[in-house]
Amino acid sequence: MILALRRSVLAYRNSVQAGRWLEANQFCYFDLPINDLAGSTLGIIGDGALGRSVADLGRAFGMKVLFSDYKGTKGMGPLYTPFKKILENSDIITLHSPLMPSTRNTISTAEFAQMARRPLLINTARGGLVDEAALEHALRSGQISGAGFDVATAEPPADDHPLMGLLDLPNFILTPHVAWASPEAGRNSPRMRALKGARIVYGSGTRTRDCTVRNLSAGGAKLVMQSTADVPDVFDLVFDDGARRACVVRWRKLGDLGVEFVVCP
Known about the structure:
alpha/beta; Rossmann fold; Thrombin, subunit H; 2 domains; 9 helices; 24% helix; globular
């Protein structure tokens, strides 16, 4: 998304489709902004595994990488840049935070007003981190130079959702929550690899069933339990490494084959 927006890739593609290249009557035309990543500043909000991987990619492109402390926090140490400074100094801001009460609307009207460099805003983390009504105003008023979103507060978004209303803009990209979805991401995810030895524990810890994993991906897995008796709606999923996490799952019976649980991340 960053590359596509920074170099107006989709906007140029649409203009070619509309006949602009033929109209220009020359080998190229420069109707839309084209900017490199090298030398620009990448502000990352969220320093988990995903945020740090994005930082590595940014450095490979020659970008200056800043990690933000969280909105409203102080004293996180010299490796972090104050949240306000991220807003003021970044050419691209990318969100990699969980959605919690403290992170909801991390970016809203006041934050957009502080974005002096008119950055790109990227959200492939969670819907709700950005105030979507404020985003619409920021894009249409030119407070930011573009935005790429893979998430929304409602999925799928209805026709009258604020993000759907931005699809006419050449500097806005919306994709259907698929940033995680490549087979390679699934195979390389430590959590998904651990599922290969997963078992379920339920009934206040008194019952255990081994599971066979099918269709492993970054977004979850299908676990087949070879029994249809006492099917739980909520259970603990125990990983190879002994970690235990509570999961709410969808399930369906597979006839004589047992029960298929769809475990979501």
